[in-house]
Amino acid sequence: MNIVSEIQRVVPVWVRRFHELTDSDPEAKLQEEVEEFLAEPSGNAKLGEAADVVIVMLTQLYVDGGYEVWDLLDEVHRKLGVNLTRQWAQNPDGTISHVKADT
User: Fold this and answer.
1) Which strand (E) or helix (H) includes residue 89?
2) In this model, does residue 103 exceed pLDDT 90?
3) Which domain, by its residues, includes 60?
4) Positive or negative, the Cα torsion across 40, 45, 47, 52?
């Protein structure tokens, strides 16, 4: 079994466990996990926090519509392709945003 299939097998188990622990939406925990990710400078701890962010997102996607890991990976692949075709501009704070097409 590949790792993505194994993760997908475990997600519904985790979702059931999550709902045994709380009635809140999984995404209520997202900001906390993102802040923990941002607080880590680098290395294995940052990787672990990134995993927590992805787990929260997978949990919410499963709750919202039964989305699977492959759905997320397909969308990441699609959006990477879109982003490569977009025009980008640097913001005053140093971040970048894609240039909105005129409608």
Assistant:
1) strand 88-90
2) no
3) 3-74
4) negative
Q: pLDDT confidence of 63, banded at 50, 70, 90?
A: very high
Angle between helix 43-65 and helix 69-85 axes, rounded to 10 deg:
110
Q: Hey, how many other C-beta atoms are within 10 angstroms of the C-beta on 20? A: 7
Q: Which residue has the tokens 């519509």?
A: 65
Number of domains in the chain: 1
pLDDT tens-digit map of 6-51: 999 999 999 999 999 999 999 999 999 999 999 999 999 999 999 9
Residue 103 lies in a domain: no
Q: How many CB atoms are closer than 10 A to CB 45?
A: 13
Give the residue from 49, 62, 48 showing the smallest Cα distance to 7.
Answer: 62
Q: Which are the contacts of 50, defined by CB distance < 8 A and separation ≥ 6?
A: 37
